[in-house]
Amino acid sequence: MNYHDGSAVKLGDIVAIPMPGGSARARVVWLGDTREHLEMDEGFVEWAESEKLLDPTQVVIEWLDQNPLAHSDPQYAPVGNYMFTGLCCVTRVDTMRCSERRRGVAVAISASRGRRR
Question: Is residue 6 part of a domain?
Fold first, then answer.
C-alpha cells in the first residue's frame, strides 16, 4: 500500500487530510491490505470486520486534533474519531519512529492470526 508519491504507508504515519476549511491531521491506525492495525477500540474493529467495511485499498485514520467532521445536529448521525479513507488525497506529514513501535505505542495486531505480534 503506497501514497500517491510511491512511498509505503506505515502504521502510525501522521497524515494531512484535505477538508473544506483546510487540512486536518490524523494518524494511520489500520491498513486495509494487510489488516494490521494499531491498538484501538476493539468494538470498532469487531464491527468493521463483521460488516466487511475496510476495503484492501483503504486505511483507517484517527483524528489527532479536533474531529473536523464533528457536529451537534441531532438530525444527522454522530461521527466517531476514526474514518475510512482512500489514499488519493492523503499526504504523509511524519512517521512514527521504530523505537516508538517497539515500546508498544504501536502494537500491531495480525488479523489473519488474531493475536498480537
Answer: no
DSSP, res 22 = E
Q: How far apart are CA 21 and CA 32, in angstroms?
A: 27
Do residues 29 and 38 make contact, with C-beta atoms less than 8 angstroms apart? yes
* 63 located within any domain: yes
Helix, strand, coil tally for the chain in percent (to 5): 10, 30, 55
What 3-state class would DSSP assign to 100?
Answer: helix
How many whole angstroms separate alpha carbon 80 and alpha carbon 93?
Answer: 22
Place of cell 483503504: 58
Domain limits for position 103? 14-112
How many domains are contained in the chain?
1
Is 94 contained in some domain?
Answer: yes
State pLDDT tens for residues 100-114: 544 444 444 444 334
> Which of 32-36, 49-53, 67-71 is least confident?
67-71
Residue found by looking up cell 461521527 in the block: 79
Is the residue at 91 inside a domain?
yes
- Taking residue 91's Cβ as centre, other Cβ atoms within 10 Å add up to 14
